[in-house]
Amino acid sequence: MSQVLSVSNNDSGASLAGGSGQSRIAFIKAGWHSDIVDQSLAGFRRELEALGQPTDRIDVFEVPGAYEIPLQAKRLAKTGGYGIVVAAAFVVDGGIYRHEFVADAVVSGMMQVQLETEVPVLSVVLTPKTFQESPEQIAFFTEHFVTKGAEAARACVATLENQRALAS
């Protein structure tokens, strides 16, 4: 089950605005390793601000884990209210099962969503080969998610601009 963490219906934005719901951004984040994953949203928001874009157009949804992202992305894309979906998760080997099947299912599912709905789905789903919960690795991946969130913000702006150019 998803939870809306912040929603704004203010349509007074700059470049991302465009005056329709299509300019809204759905940001899905997995709750697993949330202390690390949440940094992607922080980096995403900071970079949008640095690019002079409104951050009040971001609706944030939390799902339990990465595996739930594709379905949530599809449901959000099908509403017609979002011009783009961004998804963030940290898929690591928990020692009980191989994380590769989860990573593959999530990334393939996100690709399928965008192909079926024609709503772009950007990935901040990181799947490192190894992760140990040591202070060094936690610090590294925490900062890495900030960087990846910023990269996703730049990709978001470019993708929405491309979408607008195709529409006109």
Task: Give an account of the 3D structure.
The chain is α/β, with parallel strands linked by helices and 168 residues long. The protein has one domain (3-167): Rossmann fold (3-Layer(aba) Sandwich). Helix content is 46%, strand content 17%. The chain has helices at residues 34-50, 69-78, 100-117, 135-167; strands at residues 3-6, 25-30, 58-63, 84-90, 121-126. It has a 5-stranded mixed sheet, sandwiched between helices. The protein is globular, with a radius of gyration of 16 Å. It starts with a strand and ends with a helix.
**The CATH homologous superfamily:** Lumazine/riboflavin synthase
**Main sheet makeup:** 5 strands, mixed
The helix content, as a percent range, equals 40-55%
Shape: globular
User: What strand order characterises the main sheet?
Assistant: 1-3-2-4-5
What is the ordering of alpha helices and beta strands? EEHEHEHEH
Mean pLDDT metric: 85
Write the CATH architecture name: 3-Layer(aba) Sandwich
Given the structure, what is the number of helices? 4
Residue stretches low in confidence (pLDDT < 50, at least 5 long) are 1-15, 17-21
From the N-terminal CA to the C-terminal CA, the straight-line distance is 37 Å
The count of β-strands is 5
How does the helix and strand content classify structurally?
alpha/beta
EC number: 2.5.1.78
Active site: 98 (proton donor)
Keywords: Riboflavin biosynthesis, Transferase
Protein name: 6,7-dimethyl-8-ribityllumazine synthase
